[in-house]
Design brief:
heterodimer; A: about 110 residues; mainly beta; five-stranded antiparallel beta sheet; globular; B: about 110 residues; seven-stranded mixed beta sheet; four-stranded antiparallel beta sheet; 11 strands; about 0% helix
């Protein structure tokens, strides 16, 4: 059974600082997704990582994937208040008629001025 | 461009009542999903569908039923509502499992069972 774990669950950081959110998963997968959720809102897709060593960057966020270690990271550079949200990673489980994403528990990021 | 539309946005049910959460997408997506999100938690997959007439269980299917008679619609039925089903429900869709595929989410239905 595929399990997805994120840490930390809660992250309070100051503007201008750097930090990394970690996403570990338990079984082989070559697809990993990062989503953002603002309070009371739906989920917004940030990144899709499809191969070992994949790195994608958008603004102050950079995501990477190590399929051998079953680990993805979301790195935040010089945080700003607008990045405050909950970030979820999700791992794709595909095969035959199976097609689903299993989500991590999320990391609540609070960026303090 | 509507995307994924969920109705209702909010609902309060009494224990034992039943209801159907509606989900429709206008993107001609084959794959549709129902997730629930408990307060402060991640999303759990309830049911999913890979096309009209085909559905399958996810991680937490007990107490729910789904049907997929058309490509556009994927309703979620709650029979005999229980307090444990208090949650926010998200419907999502995707075209396929192809490269760079991602899920498009609806705005959610907040359900309270009292």
């Amino acid at each position: 059974e595929l399990k997805v774990e994120q840490n930390p669950l809660f992250l309070s950081m100051q503007e201008g600082k750097n930090y990394t959110i970690y996403c570990n998963y338990s079984t082989t997968s070559d697809r990993l997704y990062w989503y953002r959720q603002d309070p009371g809102k739906s989920l917004e897709s940030l990144f899709v990582l499809l191969s070992n060593g994949a790195v994608k960057q958008e603004g102050r966020l950079m995501a990477s994937l190590d399929t051998k270690a079953r680990l993805s990271t979301l790195h935040i550079t010089a945080a700003v208040h607008d990045l405050s949200a909950t970030y979820f990673c999700a791992v794709g489980q595909y095969g035959g008629a199976t097609n689903k994403l299993i989500f991590g528990t999320g990391t609540l990021l609070a960026v303090q001025p | 461009n509507a995307g994924v539309t969920q109705t209702p946005k909010f609902r309060i049910l009494k224990i034992g009542q039943s209801m159907t959460l509606q989900c429709a997408q206008d993107m001609n997506h084959n794959y549709m999903y129902w997730y629930r999100q408990d307060p402060g938690m991640g999303l759990k997959l309830i049911y999913y569908s890979v096309g009209a007439g085909i559905t399958d269980k996810g991680e937490v299917p007990n107490g729910y039923n789904v049907s997929r008679s058309t490509t556009e619609d994927f309703p979620l039925r709650l029979e005999l509502a229980a307090p444990s089903q208090t949650s926010v429900y998200f419907c999502a869709s995707s075209y396929s499992t192809g490269l760079n595929e991602k899920l498009f989410f609806g705005s959610g239905t907040q359900l309270s069972v009292l």
